Amino acid sequence: MKMTRVRTGAAAAASARGSRLIRSGGSPWTGGVIVLLACAALVAAASAGAALFTLGALHHTYLDRGNLPDLGPFTRFEFPTIGHIYDTNGQPLMELAREYRQITQYDDIPPIVRDAILAAEDKHFFSHNGVDYFSLPRVLGKVRVGALMGRLATGGRHDNTSGRAIFPQGGSTITQQLVRGNFLQRQTSQENSYQLRNVGLVPRALSSVIGARNVNMVLRKREEIRLSLWIEERMRAQFGSKRRAKEEILARYASFVYMSNGQYGFARAAEYYFGRPLSTFTADDADKAALLAGIAKSPRDYAPDANGTGPVLRRRNQILALMAVQGFISRDQMTGAEHRPLPAVLQHASLTLQSSAVVEHVLDELTAAHADLGIEDLLQGHIQVYSTVDARVQRIVSEALEHGLQRYEQRHPRTRGLIQGSVVVLKNRDGSILAETGGRQVYHGRATSYSDFNRVRQSLRQPGSAMKPIVYLAAFRHGDFTLETLVPDEPISVPNGSASVPKWIANYDGRFKGLIPIREALAESRNAVAIWITAQIGIDAVLQTSRSLGVQTPLQRYATTALGASEVNLLELATAYRTIASGLLAQPYVIRRIVLDSGQVVGENEHHSVTISLADGALSLIQEGLRGVVRIPTGTAHALDARGFPIAVMGKTGTTNEFRDALFVGSTYGLDGITVGVRIGFDDNRSLGGKDTGGRVALPVFHELMLKIYRDQLAGPPPSFPPQMEQRITQYLQGEARAVVVDAAPSGRATDAPRGHASPAESEWLLNHATAFEPIPTTKLSSVPLNPIRDR
Predict the structure, then answer these.
(1) Exposed / middle / buried, residue 590 (Cβ in 10 Å: 0-12, 13-18, 19+)
(2) Buried b / exposed e across 720-741, counting CB within 10 Å, b at 16+?
(3) Nearest by Cα to 225 from 354, 159, 133
(4) Please, is 232 exposed, middle or buried when counting C-beta atoms within 10 Å of its C-beta (0-12, 13-18, 19+)?
(5) Which of 683, 609, 622, 681 is nearest to 650 (CA)?
(6) Segment 172-201, tens digit of pLDDT
(7) Is 50 exceeded by the pLDDT of residue 599?
(8) Which residues pair with 437 in a beta bridge?
């Protein structure tokens, strides 16, 4: 028993020693077997996964035709292009686009440019069916084996998006590049990520080996090949032959590809970089054709205006060599083109012509008048807008406004860059807008060429005394007044809201002249007379007249509206003066016609005018009165009656409360004339300063632009006023006109009398009625600012 135990213990010890021997001494072959088996299993799994993935890819690529994109826009060649806003002469005022592209048909691509594209991108383009299988060995030869082995060694545990991809870029045919840019933009932009974009079983298994980023790239490439084969098939069916289909695809590539600096397509790039239409390229332009063809690979590096010229030259010469190898050009042509320097790139000036207000107006009118069209149609190039604006007039107006603001800043240096203004020019015949400037070119240090607050249409401000012609026209329509009617320029008051003390109205010069003719009162902008007349005819007559002239903003029903206390925008004020000058009511418009990409024209001949109905020559009376504002020596616009200004105009100044705004609105006569509205003031409503009236600040802008417009014959010859009208003003100036006095209450008729002092009875009646109002509908004035006590 004892011996047995001894043997048993020895055996146990030996067994333990043997066990230790196996664990230590046996590891060289046992551990290797285990690793080998594990690698084999991993490779087998990967191979099985790869086989499954390959079978699935082949089925998806060549047999699956489900979940396809809409090919209609592609086959119809409906790529986003450029929307233009043109002036009345067809000159572009502004280009609007998400992608600045020009569509080019195959026949418009010169042979030298086609050859350069094919040499650079796809030499077998006309023979393959969307995928160049001959290039596969070259592509596979570029597979980064080191990166692949590294992925296999780590088992896909790490995915570095900044590291080198296993599969190289390149090898795509022209068709594949179109597919990638046109249908797979989102998938392409998301593939460079550690997140797997396909949640299928096989992609997940494969991503554990080669990483999500590489799987994303492979899946995108698979879809790219599938769509390329399908598109070529559909294009052959659409155009009847493989050759025609290929020509159409090449044209789409030449129009679609990005060429740097926001330009798309070869035609656009040729214009942008060289200032030449693409169609003018010949065999002598092989260097330029190769340069353009080289941009698509890397626009940032190979565009002609790239920072370094070395890469640009190398890329150009590389393509020239490929063109020679493929027989597109001779060796001598290649050598000559290689020795040419890079052409100078054009400097590009803005097309905006300070027309941001025009663009804003066009976009508003487009959406308001055409429910089925919108801004997106313009941005996609589906429509082209032809405006009524004349770019030459627009430039003159912008410069005149800048000069006027500079003159003001010279008197007030602390306001430099802060003062603002706006100008609009209308055709009298139909209300079409010839020019519209909504503000200065640089404001608060920011250029406003592309966008700005449009002060012509969007700013509601008091018109000041520019409102008075509407008051006088209402009086003439009433039938009791003519230009020779004597009216009292005497102290007068208006209700002052809830206050018991009335508001007394004064004139700009602080004086009262007694009885004066309406002609003189209008020319000198006498506030007291305008209030007195409003009392006689009623404020409703003034409001009705303003509406009949085209003012659409509701005016307040209180007395000082006669002095311009109610706010309007400059466009509707100018429209009222245009209606007075022409006798035709027409709403202003800026779109002449719209041309769809189908060639259909819409919106043409949709603007109509209506003759306004005025009794007893009221229109002629106000026209003559406004002409007198210029011709009468004491008139507020007499500066325009000078030898240096040989244009017959009529108009009215306006200065608002506390000199916050200065205005002038004036016209040349009749249907062939034009009307101009000018307003200058601060956006924060501060005062312009004492004595900065409409005649001093706004009128010089009118003076400058009218001289240049008619000097350059941009609005035809300046029309004359009727000789009888001018003669009556001359007779007044010579003291030959007959005065008219009101011999009874306003319901009576005016009678003629020799011009001179009124009789005692007449004077007594007028003076007794100087502060007596017929009921004028008013609102409480406590919440509404009164117009200036002194306004001109």
Answers:
(1) buried
(2) ebeeebeebbeebeeeebebbb
(3) 133
(4) buried
(5) 622
(6) 899 999 999 989 888 877 766 666 666 666
(7) yes
(8) 423
